[in-house]
Amino acid sequence: MQIISRYMLLQLVLFAISVAISLAVAVWLAQSLRFVDMIVNDGLPASTFFYFVILLMPYFLVIVIPVATFCSVLFIYNKLNTDSELIVLRAAGFSQFQLAGPGIKLGLLAMLCVVSINLYFLPASYREFRELQHYFRDNLSPVLLKEGKFNTLNNEYTIYFKEKTPAGELKGLLVHDSSVVGVQVTYLAETGALLKEKDDFRAILWNASRQEIDPETGRLSIAYSDKYVLKFANISQDEGDRWLKPRERFLSELLFPDSENPRDLDNFDELVAAGHYRISSPLFTLAMAFIALACLLSGEFSRRGQLGRIMVAICCMGVMMLAMFLLKDITEKNSSLIPVLYVWPLAVIMISIFVLQKTKRTVPLRKSGETGSTPSDQTTETQDQATGQAKG
């Protein structure tokens, strides 16, 4: 029996890995398209692009692994049933839970993978991703400014230029400064350049004009100069001042937000709900395996296949996934419903176990008139043949 269980488990694991890789690559390609522009138009190296996408892989895997687990159990057990291997194993004395054992073990392995990703790999990788995103977006690196578009920096400065030469010179430059409340200043220049020295960012404008509207009188004042030097204040933001999103926080930071941080207090329910979702989401992975097992191992054997049960399993899986995402959003707004995150997958698992337990083991027998033997003799003969095939 152990050899047969290992054989089934090996098939389940290999198929689950192949499905997980296929789905992860598909999602990876879809999500990576938004970073291609950084290489084509912004001139960033390809290594940075791949690093960005690799950092997002744990987030993809949390979604992909439950689906891969469900698909693996559904496909392998349906194949075993189509090849009459499950019939042979039942006749050899395998109980329902012995047949379901490899699928349950796969669900437990997948659940452990999701637990490890949720506890460490997801927050660590996404925090690194956000730090790099923060660096490229908020540190005014000239390579990230796009020509022909209005580039907003820190919600205080807007930069526009028609063309950027290979030497880094900007032509047709416009800089709008709204860093001072109530004061709007616009600079226009024929040419200019952006310079960075450590945390000091400056724009040098040649043949430029300075335009400002008096907020009291509404009069426009224009000043011309051959050269303007603008220093951008408060562009760079210290990493310690950046508020960490729920996805980039470790479990302790979600369940116990900083009571001295005003933003943590404002988003207290959202953070706590995200922490409980991170704990309960592995249970959804295990529930996926039980759904497939309950649908395929229940009921009597049919030579016409199990299309109906497969469709029921797929519908149940879709409802399970939809409920998982809906509960996540609902609990963030209503913390009193957090226990539902645990009750729902556990209820699905218990119902699946009940269905497996109540299902009778049946072995298809030939009609007594075909051989002239009694039904009991046929049952014994069928079981003997099945036992010999299992041993072989």
UniProtKB/TrEMBL annotation:
Pfam families: LptF_LptG. It is found in: Cell membrane. InterPro entries: LptG/LptF_permease (IPR005495). Residues 370-392 have a biased composition (Polar residues). The chain crosses the membrane at residues 7-29, 49-78, 99-122, 279-298, 310-327, 339-356. It is a multi-pass membrane protein. Keywords: Cell membrane, Membrane, Transmembrane, Transmembrane helix. Residues 366-392 are annotated as: Disordered. PANTHER family: SLR0882 PROTEIN-RELATED, YJGP_YJGQ FAMILY PERMEASE. This is LptF/LptG family permease. It comes from Kiloniella laminariae. The lineage of its organism: Bacteria, Pseudomonadati, Pseudomonadota, Alphaproteobacteria, Rhodospirillales.
